[in-house]
């Protein structure tokens, strides 16, 4: 799945995420440009070992936002819902982030603290945090025709 996204609807993003997890074939993710907000969750939700970015890609994680106006009771209902969604998203990130510089996985509390504000990552930082598994800097060359050593035969 190629991703170049500033983010978008949480419900639309979660429906894509659910499909990625449901289908039998593993989903490889590759960010070209940016994977922000919901785009970062889809990037992280790719199959382990198959989450990639290009060298100048950027990733941005943050908590969900929303706005509502109306009666105090309606505002309270929407506030409760956005907090529920935030918890749901944080648990998804917890499941998929695999930091390279830590002995253990990140906790929901670590993720909540990290995402108090917009959290921008370079390709290298996304790799360290475990949003991606590899930065694709150059294409792997195909073996030359007739070069049996490279073909393994």
TrEMBL record:
InterPro entries xref list: ClpP, ClpP/crotonase-like_dom_sf, ClpP/TepA, ClpP_His_AS, ClpP_Ser_AS
SUPFAM superfamilies associated with the record: ClpP/crotonase
A biological process term (GO) from this entry: protein quality control for misfolded or incompletely synthesized proteins
PROSITE patterns: CLP_PROTEASE_HIS (PS00382), CLP_PROTEASE_SER (PS00381)
Catalytic residues in the record: 37, 62
Top-level class of the enzyme under EC nomenclature: hydrolase
Pfam hit, one: CLP_protease
GO molecular function list: ATP-dependent peptidase activity; ATPase binding; serine-type endopeptidase activity
EC number annotated for this UniProt entry: 3.4.21.92
GO cellular component: endopeptidase Clp complex
Annotated keywords: Hydrolase, Protease, Serine protease
Family to which the UniProt record says this protein belongs: Belongs to the peptidase S14 family.
PANTHER family hit by this protein: ATP-DEPENDENT CLP PROTEASE PROTEOLYTIC SUBUNIT (PTHR10381), ATP-DEPENDENT CLP PROTEASE PROTEOLYTIC SUBUNIT, MITOCHONDRIAL (PTHR10381:SF11)
This protein's name: ATP-dependent Clp protease proteolytic subunit
Organism in which the protein naturally occurs: Cladophialophora yegresii CBS 114405
